[in-house]
Amino acid sequence: MALRERLQELHDRGLADIKKGDSLDRINEIRVQLLGKKGPITQALRGLRDVSAEERPKIGSFANQIRDELTAAIEERNQELKKAAINAKLASETLDVTLPGTPVAQGQPHVIQRIIDQLEDMFLGMGYQVVDGPEVEDDHHNFEMMNLPKDHPARDMQDTFYITPEILMRTHTSPNQARAMEAHDFSKGPLKMISPGRVYRRDTDDATHSHQFHQVEGLVIDKHVTMADLKGTLEMVAANLFGDEFDVRLRPSYFPFTEPSVEADITCFNCMGKGCAVCKNTGWIEVLGAGMVHPNVLKMAGVDSSVYGGFAFGLGPDRFAMLKYGVDDIRNFYLNDTRFLTQFYKRG
Amino acid sequence: MKVSMDWLNEYLTLDVDPQTLGEKIERTAVEVDQVYKMSDGMSKLVVGETLSVEPHPDSDHLHICQVDVGEDEPLQIVCGAPNVATGQKVIVALPGAWIAGHHKIKKSKMRGVASNGMLCALQEIGFDEKIAPKAYDEGIYILPADSENGSSVFPILGMDDDIVETDLTPNRGDMNSMNGTAWEVGAIYGKTPKMPTFSLNEDGSRKVSDLLQFSVDAALAPTYKMRVVSGVTIQDSPLWLQKRLWEAGMRPINNIVDVTNYIMLTYGQPLHAFDYDKLSSHHIHVRLADAGEHLTTLDGENRTLRDSDMVIADDKHAIAIAGTMGGLDTEIDDNTTTIAIESAIFDPIKIRKTARFFNLHSEASMRFERGVNKDDNQNALDHAAALMAELGLGQTEQGTGVGSDTPVEPAKVSVTLTRINHVLGTQLTVDQVQNIFDHLNFPTDNDGETFNVTVPARRWDIHIEADLFEEVARLYGYDNIPSTLPYGTMTPGALTFKQRIIRDSRRLLEGAGLNQAISYALTTTAKAEQFMMRDSEPTELAFPMSTDHTTARMNLISGLLDDIAYNVARKQKNVALYEQGRVFYRDGDAIRPLEVEHIAGAVTGALTKKTWHAEADTVDFYGIKGIVDLFLHDMGLSKPVHYEATQAHAQMHPGRTADIYVGDQAVGFVGQVHPEIASDYKIPDTYVFELNLQALIDAPHDQQQYEPISKFPDVTRDIAILVDQSVTNADVVALINKRGGAHLADVQLFDVYEGVHLPTGKKSLAYTLTYRDRQATLVEADVTKAFDKVTAALEKEFDAEIR
Q1: Shortest CA distance to A191 belongs to which of A278, A127, A255, A273?
Q2: Which residue of chain B has the CA closest to A150?
Q3: Residue B470 known to bind ligand
Q4: For A185, phi and psi rounded to 5 degrees?
Q5: Measuring CA to CA, how many Å separate B522 from each of A244, B24, B678?
Q6: Searching chain A, which residue's CA lies closest to the CA of residue B579?
Q7: What is the pTM of this model?
Q8: In CATH, what number is assigned to the domain containing residue B131?
Q9: Is residue B581 in some structural domain?
């Protein structure tokens, strides 16, 4: 057989073998066998010596072409087999992606804390400071400076845990108004503060009463702060906490430390104002008390009420949380059942 | 106050439905509890006439009645009331009627006899026991003889009247009367109410000044007056008067007592009627009681008075607790003929204290506490005398006996238009403001800027400028006030360093898997004193409400253990909580405690449960310590943190507790709750920590500075040593650090082994030492040299065997 025919046959047989080769080892074997130094193509090329001088370059070139084609075929087959091997491996690694992930321990803030933080953030954004004061207060700051002298009938509204006749568990966060005003340097600008904290009342704990609860006090004192500013601020609070689809209604009330005094109601979110058991058929839910700071309170804190004035408000995060999330028993907040605590993670 | 619309309409012509009025009052004046009719929820209650009443053959108390209800045929109704008799006008619940308590009346048989309805007592149609006339306590109510058979009983009994029930704030005592309510509603609607009129005819032959003498302490009773009505017949009040009373929630008693209550409802002036003939002397004293003095009050209670209680007395003894409750001895009874009517104003604070002490909060004491209109004091007395004489068929004796009559000057308050608009944020005009004062019936003049307002005595709550702002604001309407936000000098709104640390510390512990708890800060003294980090006296309530909450806590852990116990009792095995809050330390004789911010954690069970894929992350000493490590690391403290074994905490496991130090300052502790304490709390093994957060806030904090990352590779060396059990990890690490050389960057413990394969009393510790040079690649020989020094030191100091 002529050299060219032999080469052609090696080529054809080689390609067929490569195609049949089903493992990387087999392909390597074929490569060594076909293209190795002792392989048939190398051998065949040795026979070039016997070919005529004019045929020699043609056959030589043909032989190189065949070698390149076989090399390429081997490479291609190698890639195919590698790819198949990887695919087979990946297939064998398939997981049930619906099995649950490994849990990561993560705690939640208390629901009342969420409300307080939300209010703090809003008021910080409006340039208020957050201040705190003692939970064990003196009668002077808790009552006297809030325009509640001894024997004032409104003291009956706030049943008090006394420690001594002059020392008590604060019944509201309002004493922080007095403390903030005493400490503030009005020559440096207005006083704008909120003061969240625990307060205590001499109550028997039940679904709607707790001897411990929370308040957030707010106070703005400047040369020109108006009742309209109070109304706008309270509307902001309601919109921030409950959403802006609710109306706010102010109505007259009475607190010894503000004059005028108002209570703020928002549209009942249970019935959207139609009237239901939650709002006692009024369509409104009372959410906070507020007013313009009483001149006596300013005077007692050493603030000139003919120059300065402002508003104050007090709201109850416990009540807000009960209303906002439909919590029906205030004791839930202080018993710390983990099934309760871990509920409050949603954004709305 | 329960305000009858029928009655209010006698003052004002209001073309407004009661719900709207209620809403208007609520937005303008005081809260409205409800707007209702006494007949709400009831139907088919009509007048019937008993044509015949026969005893039931099979009963000793039932009667078979034939009742004319205005139909062609009488209804047969079986009735058990003892007072049923022929010829009575009675309340009939027809078949299908709804009566009180959501009861429906159906045709039925009673002991075999058909009964087609029910004859009703007032209690059965919704009258409270406290307001139904006593005469009808035991039986059905008898209607007036002229009632028309078959007609609804609601108008006859006033049950179809709309009632607006107001809930008054303490400053609006003026609205505790129909007159005051009418003034207020008049102001709201811009109408002038027509005040009640009466004609007093002093037709008695005697002068009150001859009948009564007075010794009144005007400090106790600034006003004290009496009239006398004689020759009266005690009987039931007419129905119109009874209706007024029960609609207002008061019980009709007799014509004299009812008049005092009616006048009180009208004027807000409480009155008291004494039986003149029962007075042991006709000299009336208003004085403080003698301590221990006794008086039997109208309710039959024998009361021991204090020397701060005001009494009305004759020469011999007290006859009434002033303004609170009359005495039994001088009570009006069926044989009374001569009445001494008292119209007084008492010291509100004394009344309040007495009412509170005896728990006698009456309609009268409540009005005295909230203030009485001096301007109407005489009117009320005169009106009462006129009405008693009329209804009791008696005579009013001449003149008024005056024990005291301290004049009250009306308050004169000036306010400018500028101030009003400045404070309210409005742009009201002179006319708008003047109109409001006019509607309130406050005599007011203005010069176009300044309003000089004379406040009538009925509004004793108003005496300063700010009070007038409120009147203007509420009558102008809060709805009409614009909504703005404060403007002026900008102020920074930022948390303080302390507040930021407190917020961050919460986030940190939540990230570590603990849920925020808020426990009760008041606990028992025993629990308050557990887990304390320093000596302190307890801060205890003078009058606690419950034995569980008597003392301000001096630790946070005990509250968390209460929380865990609550969870464990509800089958929650895995509980991880933290709390941030204050503890209350009190030193020696100090009255006020120091309030210190603390933060504490408590974990029982696992932070994460066992799953198909991972073991439970069960917390042990090292688990809770890891949380503390993380927490303290992220506090960024300048001084190093270290832990020392301690047995100083009685409530902690003596072998599993460490005090935590920052530098040489103790800031808290971590460990396992003593198993006996855990058992007291009924909780399983629990690990806790408590830190003095205030100390961490106050401790020096590192400034954050970028630390360049070394360009040269670290070299690590592992070492395992066998040492005595008593040698601690902290000892070893300290020595390695001390002798580690300049390039030692880190020491990490990676294995601890104690067990059978080691000699008794020994343990194996294994560490990775990391060497780092920021300037150059470390030379192997240098590292070996440094490492050998550490090895030698360990051998020398701890007799360690290098493994």
Answers
A1: A127
A2: B349
A3: yes
A4: -100, 100
A5: 38, 43, 20
A6: A110
A7: 0.88
A8: 2.40.50.140
A9: yes
Report yes or no on B485 lying in a domain: no
* Total domains, chain A: 2
Report the distance separating Cα A234 and Cα A240, nearest Å: 10
Question: Is A309 in CB contact (< 8 Å) with chain B?
Answer: yes
Same domain for B26 and B83?
A: no
Q: A265 Cβ partners below 8 Å, 6+ apart?
A: A248, A249, A250, A251, A282, A284, A285, A286, A287
Residues A145 and A76 in one domain: no
Q: Which of residues 250-269 of A touch B (CB under 8 A)?
A: 250-254, 259-263
Which helix (H) or strand (E) is B757 found in, with range? Answer: none
One DSSP character per residue, A291-305 reads EEEPHHHHHHTT--T
Taking the alpha carbons at both ends of chain B, their separation in whole angstroms is 91
Which string of b and e fits B130-141 if b means at least 16 CB within 10 Å? ebbbeebeebbb
Residue A103 lies in a domain: no
Its ipTM equals 0.89
Q: Which of B511, B549, B612 sits opposite A106 (nearest CB)?
A: B511
Q: For the residues B308-314, what does the mean pLDDT come to?
A: 96
Please report which confidence band the pLDDT of residue B418 belongs to, taking 50, 70 and 90 as the band edges.
very high
pLDDT at B180 (0 to 100): 96
pLDDT reading at A151 higher than 80: no
Mean pLDDT of B725-751: 94
CA distance A312 to A300: 16
Residue A144 lies in a domain: yes
If you average pLDDT over every residue of chain B, what do you get? 94
Which positions in chain B touch A294 (Cβ < 8 Å)?
Answer: 466
Confirm or reject contact between B31 and chain A (CB < 8 A). yes
* Residue A256: closest C-alpha in chain B: B171
Residue A98 placed within a domain: no
A228 CB near a chain B CB, below 8 Å? yes
Asked if A122 has any chain B CB less than 8 Å from its own CB, the reply is no
Q: Chain B residues with CB inside 8 Å of A250's CB? A: 478-479, 481
Q: Which amino acid is at B676?
A: E
A73 lies in which domain range?
3-92
Model confidence at A278, pLDDT cuts 50, 70, 90, reads confident
Question: Would you state the pLDDT for residue B625?
Answer: 97
Determine the pLDDT at residue A9.
87
Helices and strands counted in chain B (H then E): 21, 40
A146: CATH? 3.30.930.10
Chain A CB contacts of B549 under 8 Å are 211
Adjacent-strand bridge partners of A345: none
User: Which residues of chain A lie closer than 8 angstroms to B496, CB-CB?
Assistant: 129-130
Q: Please report, rounded to a whole number, the percentage of residues in chain B having pLDDT higher than 70.
A: 100
Q: Do A226 and B170 count as a contact with CB atoms less than 8 A apart?
A: no
Domain hosting residue B308, numbered range = 208-405
**What is the Cα A107 distance to its own chain's centre?**
12
B40 is in an annotated binding site: no
* Per-residue pLDDT tens over the stretch B584-602: 999 988 989 999 999 999 9
Residue type, B167: D
Where do the DSSP E strands lie in B609-743? 641-645, 652-662, 665-673, 687-692, 715-724
Whether residues B693 and B797 fall in one domain: no
Nearest CA in chain A to B540: A163
Tell me how close the Cα of A315 comes to any Cα of chain B, in angstroms.
18
